[in-house]
Amino acid sequence: MPDSSAEETLLLVDPDLDFLDWATKHLAADNLRVLRCDNAANAIKVVEKTDVGVVVAGMELQPFDGLDLLGRILQHSPQTLVILTAGFPTTGQIIEATQRGAYDVLRKESLAFELRPVVESALQTRDERRSADEPANEELPKHDGRVKMIGISRALQEVFKLVGRVARSDAPVLIAGESGTGKELVAKAVHEYSPRRQREMITINCGAIPENLLESELFGHEKGSFTGAIARRPGRFEQADGGTLFLDEIGDMPLSIQVKLLRVLQDGTFSRVGSNETLKTDVRIIAATHRNLAEEVAAGNFREDLYYRLNVVEIPIPPLRERREDIPLLAEFFLQRITRKNGMARIRLAAESITDLQNHNWPGNVRELENTMARACALASSNILLPADIPLASPPGKPNSITPALLDQFLEAAPPEEKPLEWASRELAGRMLERKHGELKDAAVALKLTSAELRKLLATAKH
Q1: Percent of all residues in the chain with a pLDDT value above 70, rounded to a whole number
Q2: Cβ–Cβ under 8 Å, residues 288 and 207
């Protein structure tokens, strides 16, 4: 624990007496007094009579739950730091706890290795804030749990906490992650836990609309402004006024449109296509991309000033292969949803199937897992899915594996007049371009090259 001449008080609140005994011994330290109680009502009495620095409380308490306890503690003692614990904290619990001012939210099964360092960090923070006069955290109304993000991994819980922290502000948010990781779901969570949740969140995919139509989609147009404009039409910025505009795949936005978007971010004004009238809008911008925008800026494909305007708060979404403990929960969730939707009997996963799913690399992330479960349900011959019933793109545990024999065969195919490494690089680049359907940007991102580097590499093949 942090060294301090002043004694600090830690309060443990949990109905499980065995847990209280364990935590008391686990957290014992010099200059730390540990108090404990088994219900929320008594915890409030302790906080009212004692200067408690840190509280570690379970979510499931009586006569009111951990979230209510959090609000009451911070109302009485704003400088007390509260750490909440739960067996399987839900998305809504983590986001709302963070919004209400919780220092952290921990899963009970991880407390053996996470509780002590988090408490030490909280005590250090408490010591640094001791002389500060901080306002109480304002309680927010409870939400109905409409956001459905599934996962118990620490990586995903960190995403939930970021959502809770950023949702209350109007700061632009950039959600970064591979395709299929659930970026739109995170955007919806930010909106639904924000003060703008009573208004609409409008979504537009910047990569799915041709450049000549994207400007009109965003800003609207006047009658006769271009061929086919038979009437005035409001754009997404007008429709989202007072709410949130989610710009999906912002990395695919053409440079000509980026300039106009920058103006809206700077002063909230825009004009419809074919109009000189300046309109104002009050919109919170959330953007998402599977590209590395910093690399796109360096390659000249994305405006640097727009990048910094959008990237006020970044929420990185981890790929599924980095949170394998979430795979069984996600697979079960998709199975239940698919069988309910189609009026099917319940289908379960065999233990061996769960192991195979966790060993798979999931290049398509959560979207690929959902599609895999849908195919497995459609082809299921019984109510238990065995490994043979689940179509995986590559052998479990050996995604994209290359054998020495295959490498030898590849090198032997190099023309004798060519340097093998240069030839192999061009061949791989050309193959990746084919896989990305000729999209140079996508192929460059997959190869971790800039577009200019890939173009130069491909050019060397032309003799």
Answers
A1: 89
A2: no
